[in-house]
Amino acid sequence: MSARTAGLLLWLSVAGLAAAVLLWEAGHPPSPPAVTGGAGKMPELPASTPLQPFRLPTPVAYSEISARPLFVATRRPEAPIPVETPPEKPVAGSEKTFVLLGVMVTPTLTTVLLRPEEPNAKTVRAKPGDTVGGWLLETALPNRVVLRQGQTVQELTLVRPKKPAKPRTGPAAARKGQDPAAPAGAPMVPQPEDLPHAVVPLQPSP
Asked: Which CATH class is domain 98-157?
């Protein structure tokens, strides 16, 4: 008998033995151990207490977390944000408006001329830092000034005088001897050089 045949017979015998063991265990399952003393009675389980509804702890329990917050680098409470109070509105009727009539700016002195918009108001001369009618002259520039009263700011622009209207010129004013500034419809006065020689008026001798 060769070695190959002997090895094959060995493996076949091992497989047959394993199959026999499995068949025997299938036909003879293990039986549970016998219970001694009070057979057939299940042990009693301990009574469970009913669950209580969950409630958050009071804020006092988190006092340590409030004193040393986790999400702040310094682990210290941040300062409260200041509440911005709205600016106080000026009392009705106390606000004055001015007209800027002139500004004089020199290397050593700056002066402005202000006149309140009131009947029979007088022109006031002031410098930056002066108070006029309850308004502080804060800034003076060559063409404007800034007045301040608390949180209210008033900016005035220099009032420039209007140029007089130019007289109208028409065909009648273009004629020789006619005053261009004469109103329309005024009678034309002939000049001596425009009259015939016979009717030239005599000039009185000095």
From this structure: mainly beta
pLDDT digits (tens, 9 = 90+) for 37-76: 555 677 788 888 888 888 888 888 888 888 888 888 888 8
Is the entire prediction scored with pTM above 0.90? no
End-to-end Cα, the chain, rounded Å: 184
Domain limits, the chain: 98-157
pLDDT recorded at residue 201:
46
Dist. CA 193–CA 199, nearest whole Å: 10
Closest alpha carbon to 62 in 73, 80, 74, 77:
77
The average pLDDT across 104-125 equals: 86
Taking CB atoms within 8 Å and a gap of at least 24, the contacts of 106-111 are 110/140
Half-sphere exposure of 151 (CA within 13 A, CB side): 7
- CA within 13 Å, CB half, 5: 2
Given a contact cutoff of 8 angstroms between Cβ atoms, the answer to whether 70 and 76 are in contact is: no
Whole-Å CA distances, 32 to 24, 29, 41, 111, 137: 18, 10, 15, 117, 108
